[in-house]
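Please complete every field before forwarding. Incomplete forms are returned to the sender.

SECTION A: IDENTIFIERS
Entry label: holo-247
Bound molecule: manganese (II) ion
Molecule representation: SMILES string

SECTION B: INPUTS
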Amino acid sequence: MNEKIYFFADVHFKGTSSDIEDKKFLKFQQFVRKLIQDNIRCSVYVMGDLFDYYFEKKTLIANKNYKRVFMEFDKLRKHNIQPYFIAGNHDFWIGKEFKKNFINCFLEDHVVTINNKNFYLTHGDGILSWDRKYRILKKVIRSRIFIILYSLLPGIIAEKIGKTISEQRKDSHKLDDKVLEKIQSELKKFAERKWQDGNDWVIMGHYHHLFQFSNHNGKGLLVLGDCDEIQFNYAVFDGENLLVEKI
Ligand SMILES: [Mn+2]
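SECTION C: PREDICTED COMPLEX
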């Protein structure tokens, strides 16, 4: 049993170099260093959209901006910190090379039990009632036939298509208060159903803003803030409490 479980989501590392990317990477490195220095047995759940676009191809794996991220996961594993991955909507195809970095990768929602508490983990995409079209698109993107056809495309074209889809799915990044309220009320309803199924906590990313809610029975919903060049947002379960922290 690991003593602590960390959760973070939506770093959206890009393959192209920029000052922003370097700063974002430094923040992530600080997080990794903190976990190693703490020297406590722990697990880390990456809750999806680690990269802005991921579809495993040789050209992409050779990209230095992708490589340096994977090297940080190497460091974690060498220090007995166990990384897990829950796929997001920007993680189109997780291949062998990607999976090497994690103890386990989950394409679907996943329940983990820690200290008799059930954590329902999901990236959070496709939950909203008006996401119907997206739920269909998701099924297509994750289908075997799509993966085979897509993998036959030349790298540059495949990346262009992937980036176009990524951009379209960024509607969740710019939200006004009214939309935000509507989203939060739907997420609470989703969490309510998961609590009824016996889960204690529902944790997700995807919406790029922090939102916490607990009901009268002490069951909780946590929507993680995203991680950018300014702030690396994460949550940690210390065996008793789920705490929201940042670097
Ligand atoms: Mn997402």
